[in-house]
């Protein structure tokens, strides 16, 4: 009886560990995101660099008015402009390069 309980618990442990290994992280964005958002509708842009939970660069726009959020394709023109401005802002302030500032305008 004790052996059966041990085998059962070992199987449960294997299933739990396998489930954790298959998890590919928790990215905020599903897919690439949109390529364009009208600039006058953007309240803030936030960039998340790759980390342990998500291997993608993610750029999220918070919209004016309703506060809704949209993911932006990192290869889009608006994303590239955002990254350039963020780098300029970091250079101007001589900020820590691992911290990406939040910008309110592009």
Folded structure, characterized:
By secondary structure, this protein is of the alpha+beta class. The protein has a single domain, classed as Beta Barrel (OB fold (Dihydrolipoamide Acetyltransferase, E2P)), CATH 2.40.50.40. It has helices at residues 2-22, 77-93, and strands at residues 42-48, 58-63, 69-72. It has a three-stranded antiparallel sheet with strand order 1-2-3, with helices on one face. A hairpin with a 5-residue loop joins strand 2 (58-63) and strand 3 (69-72). The termini are far apart.
Provide a quick synopsis of the model.
With 106 residues, the chain is of the alpha+beta class. It has helices spanning 2-22, 77-93, and strands at 42-48, 58-63, 69-72.
Number of separate strands: 3
Q: Strand pairing plus helix content: what structural class?
A: alpha+beta
Mean pLDDT rating = 75
CA radius of gyration is 21 Å
Instruction: Tell the overall outline.
Output: extended
CATH A-level architecture: Beta Barrel
Terminal Cα span: 68 Å
Biggest beta-sheet profile = 3 strands, antiparallel
- The CATH C-level name is Mainly Beta
Classify the helix fraction into a percent range: 25-40%
SSE map:
Blueprint: H1 2-22, E1 42-48, E2 58-63, E3 69-72, H2 77-93
Antiparallel strand pairs: 1-2, 2-3
Notable traits:
36% helix; 3 strands; OB fold (Dihydrolipoamide Acetyltransferase, E2P); 106 residues; CXC_Chemokine_domain; alpha+beta; 3-stranded antiparallel beta sheet; extended; single chain; 2 helices
């Amino acid at each position: 009886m004790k052996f059966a309980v041990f085998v059962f618990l070992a199987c449960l442990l294997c299933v739990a560990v396998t489930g954790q290994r298959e998890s590919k992280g928790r990215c905020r964005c599903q897919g690439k995101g949109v390529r364009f958002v009208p600039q006058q509708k953007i309240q803030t842009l936030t960039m998340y660099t790759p980390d342990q939970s998500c291997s993608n660069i993610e750029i999220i726009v918070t919209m004016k008015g309703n506060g809704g959020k949209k993911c932006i394709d990192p290869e889009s023109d608006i994303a590239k402009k955002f990254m350039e401005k963020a780098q300029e802002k970091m250079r101007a302030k001589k900020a820590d390069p691992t911290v990406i500032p939040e910008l309110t305008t592009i």
